[in-house]
Amino acid sequence: MRIAxxxxxxxxxxxxxxxxxxxGYAVTAFYLKxxxxxxxxxxxxxxxxxxxxxxxxVCEKMNVELRVIPLQKEYHERVIIRALEEVRAGxxxxxxxxxxxxxxxxxxxxxxxxxxxxxxxGHYAQVEERNSVFFLKKSADIVKDQTYFLSLLTQDQIxxxxxxxxxxxxxxxxxxxxxxxxxxxxxxxxxxxxxxxKVPYDEFIxxxxxxxxxxxxxxxxxxxxxKHGGYWFYTIxxxxxxxxxxxxxxxxxxxxxxxxxxxxxxxxMTESERDTFIIDGVHxxxxxxxxxxxxxxxxxxxxxxxxxIEWLGDDSLRIYLIEHKERGIAPGQFxxxxxKELCLGAGIIE
Length: 350
Prior knowledge:
By secondary structure, the protein is of the alpha+beta class.
């Protein structure tokens, strides 16, 4: 079996490559160059150069061929333009979810030799086949689980994917890296969006969308408390970065037309804390669920809420949180649905 392994310069993808090589598969490593260049390069040092040094080190140690695939054009067209449109509309996009579907398991599929049988990555997730249907499952490490970011994958895509470290915890992956004597064993994890690297998110938005001064208004008293640089820098439920005294303050609303940011001490008085919301453009990875009682994540992480779903149309659902309310539910975010260990799919919060 020929396997194309996406390697990023981190410990997870390095261990994934090592595990597959040890099993005797014919592996080729691929590094995707999707970092922003040109005008965005001025915001930080080129992070991909450091990543590529680690990638080359790992591949040389394991005697694995490495190929570098430039996909900046595809990334800009399929992900960045859409993300900026969402930001300008006052919504909260998640480019990493689009990146996985459109680039890592989309444009990359099209760019490589079609004789590769499988694509492998260092994601914390698992794939299970049942009667010729492929299901996306949570990883063994609930904290590191990345199924949230993979929730838009299609059945065709997931049928070709391997997640070699999905059955391991992060601690076990670090131990394997030490055993393999990989240069990435102690490397810190990347926390940024996949196309930004070390570039601060606000700096990226400032470069492409700009700044525009507006009022920060107390939702209760309607008093102007201060100024902000543009509603697009903030998301519902946000607490930090407001630079207001007498806090804590939370972002609870936006007036897009007037560029006003509304804040409050009490999230309960506004729709920023709620137990129901609508998602549109619902995508199912394998099939529609047979039950109305599921669980949902409104952001990446271990926090998952029991919920009930109500069908509003073929690709629209109303989500009811069963046990409590959640703050910071913002339009544009992805709500990802689960049935126990299975990741079923996702929709965009409206």
